[in-house]
Amino acid sequence: MKEKQYISSQLNYLKASPTPFHAVAAALRLLEDSGFIRLFEKTPWSSLAKGKYFVTRNDSSLIAFTWDETCTGKLHIAGAHLDSPGLKIKPRPVREKHHCLQLGVEVYGGALLAPWFDRDLSIAGRVCCHQDNDTLHTPLIDFKRAIGIIPSLAIHFDREANKGRKINNQTDLVPVIGLTDNFTRGFYALLKDQLLKEHPEYANAEILDFDLFLYDVTPPLLTGLHEELLTGSRLDNLLSCHACLQGIISTGQQANSLIILNDHEEVGSLSTTGAQGSFLEDILSRLYKNPIERQQVLRKSLFISADNAHAVHPNFDDKHDPQHLPVLNGGPVIKYNANQRYATNARTAAQFRMFCHLAEVPVQEFVMRSDMACGSTIGPMTSAALGIDTVDVGIPTLAMHSIRETAAKSDCWFLFRALQKFFSAEKNT
Ligand code: CO
Fold first, then answer.
1. How confident is the model at residue 219 (pLDDT cuts 50, 70, 90)?
2. How far does residue 357's CA lie from ligand 1's centre (Å)?
3. Is the pTM for the entire model greater than 0.90?
4. Cα–Cα distance between 139 and 409 in angstroms, integer?
5. Is residue 153 part of a domain?
6. 392 and 380 share one domain
7. Cα 97 to middle of ligand 1, angstroms
8. 16, 355, 384, 417: which could join 26 in a potential S-S bond, CB 3.0 to 4.6 Å?
9. Is 135 helix (H, G, I), strand (E, B) or coil?
């Protein structure tokens, strides 16, 4: 795969993935197109033939792997999270105020909220419905067009606005989705119309519930004088998810490889689909039925946990340690933290450096300033739960957790190439 083709696939993946559910659906299409076979947790897997497989959980997390039962050596594992901070629609969302039709939302994760104002927003996610019998279905919907906005308060009512305005999540962040005069049929009827537009086969379905998010309709794009920058929503962490997917898709099958894409990282990972849940352990125990053998394999293996890193911001460079300034177009960043907020150690960092060296891509380092608190990611949890040596890495990004983030195009390509080397690394001995 060439860089241009990779970036075009990256942009398509971002466009198709306004929510974790859509990101899993888009991943599933990429994997199926490349010959991966879908498995289900609800059925037994008798001994799997040599091949490529994937399994999803709750439509919002995914594990894909290449498998050869006779390989008892290393398992190459990479992981990333599919969720991003944002606004999730409340169960009884509709409110009418001064002719404005509005939707109540909860803040999901550590969102940078100011950039959500005055954006054209759409709605996407999944609905849960039943039709004709008792079986529940969870089709995805995506309105795709702009239907909402969170208008700012005019500066005339708050002359101090530019000196730091506090945002109240309950009262300030309520999007307007139209005028009350035109709204007669209720929110569920609106969802049903959209469901039928996208999935006519649900004509007799009754929608019982939903998981829906707001998102920015502005598509991701390349910008900069030479189109060297990539901007969009959810770059943290769909850039890593895409690199994991294309990495495992492009590897030859000489060793067993696995990727895990988790939900709920931004809210602490404690769920059936999060990194503190049982998903990875459950799948590994199906693949390696003997627990001692599983432990031996994991102790030989490396887990690359990929999650965007903070590039140094040209306007705020004093926020970084002056010796550790990850730059855009400087390659993937290895993340260190003495207090184990990142799982990297000298040995795992050295292994990642070797893959970068083999792939001929640059590599850089991040450590938080010693007088500031450090974030974390799925690396330490997965490492602790499985006893697998882990390195935390990521693509340098600006404006992390904004509704629109910025990265360098080249760094996406660099991470993919490093992962590709990892997945096709030495045979299983
Ligand atoms: Co992240």
1. very high
2. 25
3. yes
4. 33
5. yes
6. yes
7. 36
8. 16
9. coil
